[in-house]
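Rather than argue in generalities, we have chosen a single entry, letters for residues, whole numbers for local backbone shapes, without further comment.
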Amino acid sequence: MVIPASQQRIAVRELTDFCDRRIPLPDGDKKRLLHRWRGATVTLIEQRPWWTEGIPWVESAIAQFRFDPQRNEWTLYWRDRNQRWHPYEDSPRARNISRLLVEVDQDPTGIFWG
């Protein structure tokens, strides 16, 4: 699946703004929030420093967004303890990723941020 360039640009902007708002710059040495693309899928990732010096930051996937080009819609997924992704049932498909980012930010079920 290929995501249209315009849709990807909008999503990158929305995700970058979300990451910047969620973890302000002064906290960047304690944890980071970033997004990583693979085709029409983007994963929201939290990074924290390892407790031992010299070891790279530890990553934990928070949420995943998948774009369906035929429907021109995004779907939100959550990750279980076995690293498997599942559709997030409480949030329908959305034309704009920002709607799904609101759901992740509010996290009414505690499934994303614990």
Q: What stands out?
A: The helical segments are 5-22, 97-106.
